[in-house]
Write a structure and sequence with these properties.
By secondary structure, the protein is mainly α. The chain has three helices and no strands. Helix 1 packs antiparallel against helix 2.
């Protein structure tokens, strides 16, 4: 098994987890936003490894996506903490 096949399998697993957590989040009272953002981020990172881009573009894309994901996850956690303290 070569690296690209391994990264495709890992990407597909992460994307399945993303879809699963997203659907659970829609129908559940508990929030799963952090989990589906983590799964989506991992899926995008594994996808970037498969693409035939220059290493600089791959690294830049991964860093950009990680910054957006960390910002989104921290905002979700802050919002959850704020709603718990208000109640």
């Amino acid at each position: 098994m070569d690296w690209s096949a391994l990264f495709e399998v890992l990407r597909n697993i992460c994307m399945i987890l993303f879809i699963m957590f997203f659907i659970i989040d829609v129908f559940s009272k508990r929030s799963y936003k952090v989990l589906y953002h983590i799964a989506l981020t991992c899926g995008v990172i594994f996808s970037a490894f498969i693409w035939n881009w220059a290493i600089g573009f791959k690294a830049g894309f991964i860093v950009l996506f990680l910054i957006v994901a960390v910002k989104t996850i921290s905002d979700v956690r802050k919002r959850e903490i704020d709603t718990k303290t208000e109640a």
